[in-house]
What does this fold into?
Amino acid sequence: MQWQIRNSNKISISLQIDDVFLLGLINNVQHPVVKNFLVWKDTELDEDVQRVWLSELHRIMEANRFDARRHYLKGNKLPKDPQLREYILSELVDRYLDKHHQDWFLIKDLEALLELALSTKSLIHCVSN
It folds into this structure.
C-alpha cells in the first residue's frame, strides 16, 4: 500500500508500506478507527484519523521502547547519576530497536509521514497495490 501526501494533485511524498506490516500493526492497536482500516481498499486519512493513527503508533513505539529498556535494566551496570543513566539507557534502547526490531525504521518513517501531514494539514491518500 502506498501512503501519499499530495500537493495540487501531485504526489509530494510517498511511503510504500507492506500489507503484512500494516496488518500486524492493526492487530496491535486498540482504537476502532485503526482496527477497521482495510489494507486492500483505497482511502483517505483526514486530520482526525491521522491523529488517531499517530496516537496508536506512539503507543506501540512506547511499548517497544519499554521492552527494550527492560532488557537493558536486567543485569547491566549503569551509572548511578540519574541524568547520565537515563541518557545512556535511552541511547542503548534506540540502538537496540534500530538493530533488532525489523520494522522499527518503517514505524519511524510512518510516524514522520503522519507528523508531516498533520503539520501541513494535508490529507494522506492510502492507495492499495
